[in-house]
Every structure is written in C-alpha cells, then in structure tokens.
Specification:
M1 Pyruvate Kinase, Domain 3; 3 domains; 7-stranded mixed β-barrel
Length: 474
C-alpha cells in the first residue's frame, strides 16, 4: 500500500452555497481540504450546525473554523445604486438618523464622528471610492468625493490608519462564539482584532471548551499591536482583503513575510487568506499571478492557505482546491528546511531537541519524524522549521488531531492504544503510520516521545531507529 503524496501546506476552504452539499464536500476533502471555514457573517445557527454535521459525517479529522463577523462598517439605508461625482459633497450619517436628502448616506457605525478628524481619508467599496473629510457637524461627517464611481448598497467602509472605538465583541459575535461552543467547532476566528483585550474576553466566553482562537490581522492597529495579539492567540490569519484597504497595498507582501516569520518563531500556525485564486470563482483555470501568489505564500512559510469565495460561492470549488493543492506540492518539492529561532510554548529542552531534528534531517537519510503527542507542544516546535520530511503525530485525542491539523508538514493519526509505557507506545504508533503505507521496514525515522522518568511530562527524548527494528520485522 503506497500513500498518496502528502501536501505539507494545509488548505482551508470556506463553505457556502457552492460547497455545502455532501458529495461536493467529500470531493473537496479528497482534493486536499484539511480545514473547513464557515463565515458567520452569512450563516445562522442552523447553517453552522448543518455544515458541521455534514463535515463530521464525512471525516472526523477535518478541522472546523467559525469566522466571526466582527465590527465591519457598511453603507446602509438605500437599495438602488448611487452615482457619485468627483468633487461632490457627501455626508455620512448614523444609521439611527433619518435621511433628508440625496447627498446623505447612512453607515452602520454611529460613532464615527467621534473617532476621526478633518482631512481623514475614508474608503468605500473595498477602496474603490475615496472620500476626504471636510467637516464634522454634530453627528454628520461631511466629505468630498475624490473620484467618479457607482456605489451599491451594503458596501464596506474603511478608515485607514485610524483606531475606532468599537465594542470588543458585537452581540452577534458573542452569540456566534456561544454557537461554536455548543456545536463543538475547533477554532473561532476573530475579525478585525486590534489588541489583546478582545482575546481575553473571548477566552472567558469559550470557557473550558478547548476551542482555539485565530486572530485575523486586518488593519493598522492589528499590525501595530501584533506581538501582544500573537502572545494571546493560538493562531493568526493574515486577512489581506481588508488589510490591503487599511494600509498601502504595496506593503502587503512585506507585511505578510514579516508576520509569517514572527508566527513561526513562537511556534504558532499562520494562515494566508483572501483572493488567492479569485478568478476561479468564474474560470476553470487560475491566472499566472494567482499561481505565483499561492506559491510565494508557501515559500514564505505559511502553515495554511485559504480559499474564500472560490469555494463558498464560486463555480468551481473542487477544481479550486485541486489547483491550490497542485501549486503547493510543486513548490514544496524544491524547498529546503528553514530553521527559525525563538521560544515556543514548549520547554527550552524541547525547542533545542527540535532544532537537533532539523540538523539530523539534513545529515541523515530520515524518512520522517514520529511524534507521540498529548500536549502538541513538541509538534508546534518542530513544525515551525518546515522540514522537508513529514512529521507523523500519533495521539489518542481526536481534538488534538483537529487542532494540529493546521500545522504545516504535520500528518496526524489517531490511536487509542497508546499507553504510559514508552516502548509499547512507540511500537503502536509506528504500526499505525506503517499501516497507512507511509513507511517501509528499511526506513530510518526520528522519534520524539515523552520522558520515561516518572512524573516527568516534557517531551524530551529523541531517538533514531529503523522501522523494522521498531516493529520486530512483523
């Protein structure tokens, strides 16, 4: 039995009308999906539950992310599109205030007038329309339109380089987080994270559910406070859509590289998201620029790459996943391991041990690294070095599998037969990986396992062995 080629970079697919049928989801998982994301901006409890149950009926290994709506500002109060002219005066008014003329537009953030000053730039419709604040009169923000454009209902409002005094979590976000707890999602992704305070509040709401928090970096405040946000997060998503409107778009490639490295340094997974294969919403083939974007994200060291509208509302969800998988595999074939420095949540001994595995993987003909895991700390520490060989994590905790499913280069296996006896657990774990066709008898592997010293729980033993010796040539 020969295992299929392993894509080390994980694929996140957003589930929506194009992909929520069971047969489509099954084919997407077969094509390479590791993690399913549901955008709570467009989903109620029933849909969140239906997607989870469908995914779980196909595979208990697939991780599930509930992505919160967050404090997103939109234009509101009209249905027919509005034609805007350069030089036109336009007033942005609270949604609670009645419209009195055609040069007014309601917005869903009623306190904007408190947070901005004259000459502030305001962007509508993902940056396609630019306004400049001329004056603030009571609760009205008086703007001058900077370019000719057509504005449709419910489009976005962005204010670059401006800290907005939003509530930490909206009532909808709180309800959705509770839904994640009730249903048993694996991750909650928080939109527009500006500081760690919202993460602390979310931890309280999650209680002892074991759900991990992904912080979405989408504005300048998120970048400015990134180290504090990273410390209190379990994972990071670089959400380039709003980020590309909130900061100068030419800075995005550099910011992406910097944030990825900082995540890797502390051993926390990082997802690159938004418009990766955007043209495949309609087309059967990606553009050359999109292929390069996905490839460069893999080269940068991302743990996962994400599909949004491509799989939620696009015409070719299965093909989009297969395309992303193909690109990642092609790039991974030529990459060398990438050692990083920094302390993870593992012990100092474990971090140093994992660096040793990095060096051994280059000098010895190792076929993989077997990690017997309960806490997942060793796997996080090891994965960040982006080894060219697979990391096989064997655990008796299905929640651990779905959590570590996001880590690059990690292939998770479930075994209920692990015991407190180290030698016995190593043998059982090796049997599990061997049974899937991942290893042959003559293969040499590195093994990281818990200490055999009584009452010592840090994973601090590294061993090199041949599979046949471990299995007794069964």
């Amino acid at each position: 039995m020969t295992a299929q080629k392993f894509c080390k970079t994980k694929i996140v697919a957003t589930i929506g009308p194009s992909s929520w049928e069971k047969d489509t989801l099954k084919q997407m998982i077969e094509a390479g999906v590791d993690i399913a994301r549901v955008n709570a901006s467009f989903a109620d409890f029933n849909e969140l539950e239906r997607v989870l149950k469908t995914i779980r009926s196909i595979s208990s290994r697939i991780s599930l992310i509930l992505d919160t709506k967050g404090n997103k500002i939109r234009v509101t109060g009209f249905e027919a599109q509005k034609t805007l002219k350069e030089g036109q005066t336009l007033a942005l008014i609270p949604s609670t205030k009645d419209l009195t003329n055609d040069n007014q537009i309601q917005i869903t953030y009623d306190k904007l007038y408190k947070d901005i000053t004259r000459n502030t730039i305001i962007l509508l419709d993902d940056g396609n329309i630019e306004l400049k604040v001329k004056d603030i009169v009571d609760t009205d923000v008086i703007c001058i339109v900077q370019n000719n454009a057509v504005l449709n209902a419910n489009k976005t409002v962005n204010i670059p380089n401006c800290f907005l005094n939003f509530p930490l979590l909206t009532e909808k976000d709180k309800d959705d987080i509770q839904s994640a707890v009730t249903l048993g999602y694996d991750f909650v992704a928080l939109s527009f994270v500006q500081n760690s305070e919202v993460l602390k509040l979310t931890r309280e709401l999650l209680g002892d559910s074991g759900i991990n928090i992904i912080s979405k970096i989408e504005n300048q405040a998120g970048i400015d406070n990134f180290d504090d946000i990273l410390e209190h997060s379990d994972a990071i998503m670089i959400a380039r859509g709003d980020l590309g409107v909130e900061i100068p778009f030419e800075q995005i490639p550099i910011i992406q590289k910097q944030l990825i490295y900082r995540c890797r340094a502390v051993g926390k997974p990082v997802i690159v998201a938004t418009q990766m294969l955007e043209s495949m919403r309609h087309n059967i083939r990606a553009t050359r620029a999109e292929v390069s974007d996905v490839a460069n994200s893999v080269i940068d060291g991302a743990d996962a790459v994400m599909l949004s509208a491509e799989t939620s509302t696009g015409k070719h969800p299965i093909k989009s996943v297969a395309t992303m998988n193909t690109i990642a595999l092609s790039v991974e074939d030529i990459l060398s391991p990438q050692l990083v420095y920094g302390r993870t949540q593992a012990s100092e001994n474990t971090d140093e041990l994992c660096k040793s595995v990095f060096n051994l993987s280059k000098s010895l003909n190792l076929k993989g690294v077997l990690v017997i895991s309960r806490s997942g700390k060793s796997v996080n520490s090891l994965s960040r070095h982006r080894l060219s060989i697979p990391i096989y994590e064997v655990t008796d905790d299905i929640k651990r599998i779905r959590e570590d499913n996001m880590l690059r280069g990690v292939k998770c296996y479930y075994s209920p037969l692990l015991s407190e006896d180290r030698d016995e657990s190593i043998e059982k774990a090796t049997e599990v990986v061997f049974s899937y066709g991942e290893l042959d008898f003559d293969d040499k592997i590195a093994i990281i396992s818990g200490s055999s010293i009584k009452n010592k729980y840090t994973n601090s033993i590294l061993e090199i062995a041949t599979v046949g010796d471990l299995l007794g040539n069964k």
